[in-house]
Design goal:
The chain has 18 helices and twelve strands. It is an alpha/beta fold. The chain has two domains: 299 residues, Up-down Bundle (ABC transporter transmembrane region fold), CATH 1.20.1560.10; 234 residues, P-loop containing nucleotide triphosphate hydrolases (Rossmann fold), CATH 3.40.50. Strand 1 and strand 2 form a beta hairpin. Helix 1 runs antiparallel to helix 2, helix 1 packs across helix 4 and helix 4 packs antiparallel against helix 5. The protein is elongated, with a radius of gyration of 35 Å. Bound molecules: adenosine-5'-diphosphate.
């Protein structure tokens, strides 16, 4: 709608373009008998006229193509924008189900195809269809019995086209799926390359890849074969039809229903039908393929998305950072609870270490605190407000996560710390200072404007962790959720990260999934989680003395007893 003007302008150009066709057919009717009669002055006159009409028509075509391109491209851009917005809100379970490669393919190739089809529909299919109607109308006006005969063949062609079209569409969908699986496997292979090499699994993966490309080739070939069959069939029918029309035309002239000029115009007009018909059949095939792509895009729309805020969601008032879990039960599959009737109260400013064997539910607990998931029973409260009744955005500004793998987005250092939030340079610098990152950032040749490559490849693990800490503390969150990295850094980086953490934690409520003794010793309280229940809590010393699960965990070295232990 905002581009109504170019649509109307393009539409007018299209009408001029189409109207020129019967005019040209009429001129051909004047020209051919004049050529036959050797009437040169008349021929020159008609040719001059025809040239003018051609020029007007091509100008109109240019106007149509340029004016209509913009709205068509805008619609396809809109489609991409909406899909990406959808992607950002996708439920994590749905995101895990669709592989990254598959999603990338859908959002690039499929979205491109839909955009192309859309453009073609507006800029090629519509004028072709109009041309068909107008030129055929002119033919009926010239001689309707002959046109009736022409029409007999059309349904035969149409039925054949649609039968083939349906088959082509099914084959196209299959082959598209295959390409997308190929992309999925490729994505997996690229990220998993070190693993593959470590297990000397290259031949296995190569084999798998080859099977996949073989399937892909076969599916593509099926599509090609159907297309290859379709063109000759349609083409032959067209030729037979035209020959039949010539025959009937001769009979009509003999019967006196048509003169030589009219018949010349008629045949020219008939030839003018071939082009739009072939455009329409090609476009029809692409349209079907486009539909297959659109369906694959629509599937994304059908995936579950993150739960939206309640309409009556409450604003988050001054956050002090008191966390409370009241009888919280949660399971990804409700039949298999991961957290069972959990009760936990964390005071503002308290540092609580969560420890427990892998699979105990520690990360799941974090996901509830960020409202990535919602408790099936019980309540999670922040300063007495139930998280379910808050706005997710506000909650996530108050509760910041330092993930285990310190992933940062590519861009400048300053952008990585701000991460889309409005922040002044001073605020960014302050956050970096707190995270003990300012030193190394300022030592970079371009300081805060230095570029981070994809996946932070040009920074060390310890530096990335400190950037992640700076990113977390930038908005001055009341609560910090810290997922300690399991892979050890060298002692020097470790100390630098620890220093950053200590400063970042000051004055905040901190929940840390702890793997190191240094961390649990600084915690005011240690909570031992096992199979979704709290089995013990207390200080390190008290828990060691009581000789329970915690002590066992330490002895089994699930808590890393660093050099100081
Ligand atoms: P921890 O962080 O203590 O290692 P998690 O919270 O990651 O434990 O996992 C607890 C349990 O929940 C495990 O049995 C795990 O398999 C399961 N789980 C974790 N994430 C998901 C998920 N996205 N979908 C289904 N099950 C999950």
């Amino acid at each position: 709608m905002p581009h109504r003007r170019s649509l109307v302008g393009g539409g007018l150009c299209m009408l001029v373009f189409v109207a020129c066709w019967p005019l040209l057919a009429w001129l051909a009717g004047q020209l051919i008998p004049a050529i036959g009669a050797g009437d040169l002055p008349r021929v020159v006159q008609v040719i001059a006229l025809a040239l003018t009409v051609f020029m007007v028509q091509k100008l109109a075509q240019f106007g149509q193509d340029t004016l209509l391109a913009e709205p068509a491209l805008l619609v396809s851009q809109d489609l991409r924008r909406q899909l990406f917005a959808r992607l950002q809100r996708l439920d994590f379970a749905a995101l895990e189900k669709l592989s990254a490669g598959d999603l990338t393919y859908r959002l690039t190739e499929d979205a491109d195809r839909v955009g192309e089809v859309l453009y073609k529909t507006i800029q090629d299919t519509t004028p072709s269809a109009l041309q068909l109607v107008v030129v055929f109308g002119y033919m009926c006006w010239l001689d309707w019995p002959l046109s009736l005969a022409t029409l007999v063949l059309a349904p035969v062609v149409a039925v054949l086209v649609s039968v083939f079209g349906a088959r082509v569409m099914r084959a196209a969908e299959r082959s598209q799926q295959q390409v997308s699986e190929l992309a999925g496997l490729l994505g997996e292979a690229i990220t998993g390359l070190p693993l593959v090499r470590a297990f000397a699994a290259e031949p296995w993966l190569q084999q798998r890849f080859e099977t996949e490309i073989e399937l892909h080739r076969k599916a593509r070939y099926r599509t090609q074969r159907l297309l290859a069959l379709q063109y000759p069939v349609v083409g032959f029918l067209e030729a037979a039809g035209i020959l039949a029309v010539l025959l009937i035309g001769a009979a009509r002239i003999q019967a006196g229903g048509l003169n030589a000029q009219g018949f010349s115009s008629y045949v020219t007009a008939l030839l003018m039908l071939i082009d739009p018909i072939s455009h329409l059949t090609t476009n029809f095939n692409e349209f079907q393929q486009g539909q297959a792509s659109l369906r694959r895009l629509r599937q994304i729309e059908q995936e579950a998305i993150e739960q939206p805020d309640r309409p009556d969601a409450q604003p988050l008032l001054q956050v002090k950072g008191a966390l409370e879990l009241r009888g919280v039960s949660f399971g990804y599959d409700p039949a298999k609870p991961v957290l069972r009737a959990l009760d936990l109260l964390v005071q503002p400013g308290e540092v609580v270490a969560l420890v427990g064997p892998s699979g105990a539910g520690k990360s799941t607990l974090f996901s509830l605190l960020l409202r990535f998931n919602t408790a099936q029973q019980g309540q999670v409260l922040l300063d007495g407000q139930d998280l379910a009744g808050l706005r997710a955005h506000e909650l996530r500004r108050a509760v910041a996560l330092v993930p285990q793998q310190s992933s940062v987005f590519s861009g400048t250092v300053a952008e990585a710390i701000a991460f889309g939030r409005p922040a002044t340079d001073a605020q960014i610098r302050e956050a970096a200072q707190l995270a003990n990152a300012a030193g190394f950032i300022e030592a970079l040749p371009q300081g805060y404007a230095s570029r981070i490559e994809e996946r932070g490849a040009n920074f060390s693990g310890g530096q990335l962790q400190r950037l992640a800490i700076a990113r977390a503390v930038l908005g001055n969150p009341a609560v910090l959720l810290l997922d300690e990295a399991t892979s050890a850094l060298d002692a020097e980086s470790e100390a630098a990260v620890q220093e950053g953490l200590d400063r970042a934690m000051a004055g905040r409520t901190v929940l840390v999934i702890a793997h190191r003794l240094a961390t649990v010793q600084t915690a005011q309280r240690i909570v031992v989680l096992e199979a979704g229940r709290i089995v013990e809590q207390g200080s390190h010393a008290a828990l060691m003395a009581s000789g329970g699960r915690y002590r066992e965990l330490c002895e089994r070295q699930l808590i890393e007893l660093g050099p100081g232990a």
